[in-house]
Design goal:
mainly alpha
Amino acid sequence: MSGFFDIPSDLQHSWLGLVGLHLREALLPVLAGLVVALPLAQLCVRFRWLYPPVLWVTTVLYAIPSLAFFVVLIDYTGQTELTVMIPLTVYTLVVLVPAIVDGVRSVPQETLAAATAMGFGPVRRYVQVQLPIAVPAIVAGLRVATVSSISLVSVGTLIGNQGALGNLLNDATIYNRPELAWNAVITMAVLAILADAALVLVRVLLTPWMPSGTRRRKTGARPEPAAPALEDAAR
């Protein structure tokens, strides 16, 4: 364990530096994917015929191996973080778009009718009514996308990307130091667990109107998100 945090000098970063860079390369694609998925999902909700082809395209893109993506991009973006983050952003769409679509479609029609009666236009209704009610589904998608992204960043070591913990796996072989491999695996697992827990906390904070699972099982009551969402929007 003495060399567990003894990072080889060829990586040009300390252990904490590698952790910070790994998180940046993993979380920025999730954020970018969310920014793209929100309007795209709304289009799929508004125009139902659009959803199947969008889902098909995102699924096909997700099926492309990350190494093949790197080979295509490296001529344009070089051995940079961007070469790693672009495929990761694309991969998040296959999770986030269906999650948002399902969440928005779960909003009761009477809630939408009430919002329209209160003078809400399509954009305001989407942002202030549909999205808040869809938060649990969106966060569920974010949890899957985030954990997946934290894991996939390590593949960036195949193109010589110096920012990810995955380079420790490569150095573990080069220097015959298995503790570096353990360092990478354990650190990425801890980061994924912490990120997942943080998103659960975000969901709890954003949906105070949702009863706890224990209370719901005891009472058999269903959550009633429509009224709080409309009240908050009306304010």
